[in-house]
Design a protein that fits this description.
Elements lengths: L2 E4 L1 H17 L3 H18 L5 E2 L5 E5 L4 E8 L2 E9 L12
């Protein structure tokens, strides 16, 4: 069974943003989480479809929110290295790869 694995910093980013969106509007954090789940599912189903993010990673956009998921394929699925906001410093996550 193929699976999605978040490294710890990516998991923390994800949870922080869920909390942020829930503070903005109750339920919005859950909507963000659903869109992240959909993005990771697309990456898992079509791992080569994401745009190159670095030499060894790809990225897929999160619908409805200004985020993208940085991932790499692994033998049993994908590994997520960042849940990155478009407005953050470019490639701040590169040291995680």
């Amino acid at each position: 069974m193929r699976k999605v694995k978040f490294i710890a910093p990516a998991r923390r980013e994800f949870l922080k943003e869920v909390g942020y969106y829930n503070e903005k509007k109750p339920g919005l954090g859950a909507e963000f989480a659903e869109e992240v789940e959909a993005a990771t599912a697309r990456a898992l189903a079509y791992p080569d479809a994401g745009s190159p993010a670095s030499k060894s990673t790809r990225r897929v956009l999160v619908n409805r929110f200004p985020f993208f998921i940085v991932y790499r394929t692994s033998p049993d699925g994908i590994v997520v290295f960042a849940v990155a906001n478009h407005s953050r410093l470019p490639e701040y996550w590169a040291s995680r790869v």
